[in-house]
Write a structure and sequence with these properties.
Elements (H helix, E strand, L loop, with lengths): L21 H18 L3 H6 L8 E5 L6 H13 L4 E6 L2 H7 L7 E5 L12 E5 L7 H13 L6 E7 L5 E8 L2 E9 L16 H4 L7 H15 L8 H12 L14 H4 L3 E5 L6
Parallel strand pairs: 1-2, 1-4, 2-3, 4-5
Antiparallel strand pairs: 5-6, 6-7, 7-8
Helix pairs in contact: 1-3, 7-8
């Protein structure tokens, strides 16, 4: 915490709900599940140490007025890495107090902000819908603060989503800087891919203007979507997949697992390197 013990940041609206972050959760589990498992101590080692060993730690920053999205993240990550611990971090004391009755082994809630008052450097930080209220310069600064808190090989997943989670965009940041940008949508939740522009990270949302890379990308994505309209006869999922294949001819869309290719596209996702749209 900053001097005087006050958390770094300001209170969010706290809007949340069941399954609001399901799209990002399943992406984290698929893409970084191997990282979590590789960091988990062998069972025999843990037994010899009497359980006093560091296990993979995930911090969920700014979970909001309800504990539910942190609880859901914990359940989803435990399925891919049974040893993982999740700590929900909130800047509002009342929200922390309301969440603590739901604590269990491996799941806890603490008062804090961007300084992440957790027991050791986290392997993953999920920070959703917490940076939209800040200016761009502040957002860059908070990215730096979160990245500096990571464990080696760690990642920050920072993004925003719609009220019910049908539209979402998130960036993955390593200690070295931004790595990837992922778009995700429910197929019935958009008319065209550029509808996702409203969910761009704070560091990109004001750059969605002619002459900027992110605007060019979204414009080309819309054109590819229009070209692939006939595939809509086989369902919107097929149209999305074919659009991704066409777009990948001109943009470095990730085409291989775990972040890309048909297995991710069929879920309504598309990922590309951050450098392709960096401001």
């Amino acid at each position: 915490m900053r001097r005087g013990g006050r958390p770094i940041g300001t209170v969010t609206r706290g809007t949340t709900g069941h399954n609001r972050l399901r799209r990002s959760d399943r992406w984290i589990a698929a893409v970084y599940g191997p990282l979590l498992r590789s960091a988990a101590p062998p069972v025999a080692h843990a037994a010899r140490a009497g359980g006093h060993v560091d296990v993979p730690l995930v911090a969920d920053l700014g979970y909001g007025a309800s504990h539910i999205t942190t609880y859901e993240l914990f359940g989803r990550l435990r399925r891919v890495s049974p040893a993982v611990e999740v700590v929900g971090v909130e800047i509002d004391p009342a929200r922390v107090a309301a969440a603590r009755p739901y604590e269990r082994e491996g799941l806890s809630f603490v008062l804090g902000g961007f300084e992440l008052p957790v027991p050791r450097p986290p392997l993953i930080v999920r920070a959703f819908n917490v940076l939209r209220q800040y200016g761009e310069d502040e957002a860059w600064g908070h990215w730096e603060t979160l990245r500096s808190s990571l464990a080696p090989r760690g990642v920050v997943v920072e993004g925003t989503c719609s009220e019910i989670g049908h539209r979402a965009v998130w960036a993955a940041l390593g200690r070295e800087g931004p790595r990837t940008l992922t778009f995700a949508a429910r197929f019935t939740g958009i008319e065209r891919p550029s509808d996702l522009a409203e969910r761009l990270p704070k560091t990109l949302i004001h750059r969605n203007v002619p002459g900027r890379a992110v605007h060019a990308f979204l414009s080309d994505w819309d054109r590819a979507w229009a070209v692939c309209a006939p595939f809509g006869a086989y369902g919107t999922r097929q149209r999305w997949i074919r659009t991704a294949e066409l777009l990948a001819r001109d943009w470095p869309v990730t085409t291989a697992p775990p972040t890309g290719g048909p297995s991710r596209w069929r879920l309504g996702e598309l990922t590309l390197p951050w450098d392709a749209v960096a401001p």
